[in-house]
Amino acid sequence: MNANSPRSLTLQATSLNWLAVFFFGSFHGMTLLAPRYFSWSALAVALLLHWLFGGIGICLGYHRLLSHRSFQVPQWLEYGVATLGALAIQGGPIFWIAGHRQHHAFTEDVQKDPYSAQRGFWWSHMGWILKPQHAIFTFSRYQKYAPDLTQKAYYRWLDRYFLLLQVPLAIVLYAMGGWSFVIYGIFVRSVLLWHSTWFVNSATHCWGYRNFATDDNARNLWWVSLLTYGEGWHNNHHTFPKAAQTGWRWWEIDVTWHTIQLLQRFGLATKVKRIPVTQRP
After folding, report:
1. Is 153 within a domain?
2. Which residues, in sequence order, are bridge partners of residue 209?
3. Containing domain of residue 152, as a range?
4. What's the pLDDT tens digit per position in 91-108?
């Protein structure tokens, strides 16, 4: 654990953010309409957007590209994948990247890690969103932990207006397949993707195995990796956070890493960081 044991610190008093409760509750409620509007094509749309916004936007874009700078791409492509990440409705890039960098800097510290697993499974899964520690989510905090993003006008715009991107998306989905595509492409997809991503914060700090003896409780969990395109190999990632791949054993499937390799083959990804072969388990 960290030098100052998280268990010994006094928890900050937080209160429910009722706007967040209403927002996330409404989206979960809308998924109850899924059986009525079911079609195989609508389900395919939900799964496709889960991969596009989650696998490319969040896992490849927000996480490995922007949070850890584990590889580089042309600026037009960086902005493109960041926009896909914003479409996932997991917050703007500055909010997401600054929070994630704090998670790595203070892993499992109950005060400084935004989604510390030491505060319990449900806190690290979604409680940190519904009862946020406001001192962590301030622009001055973002400037400290994500100065490379706060200095760029496009990221500041995307951070403020990311929710508006759902409007043209919903219009396109409705034009393509009516309310069935909207229900599955917006609401079902969002809820599935939220919980998939949140399991990385919660489940992989509770269960699984470890390839490396780290000073935190991050673990490798196969089913979370299946849901998140390789992000569930969390012990591997916390040991070498700047590496572009997370699955280092032959059977640890890492779809996001294969996507980065494909970009590298086409000359779109450069300076790709890897774990030294001599240090692999």
Report:
1. yes
2. 220
3. 14-279
4. 999 999 999 999 999 999
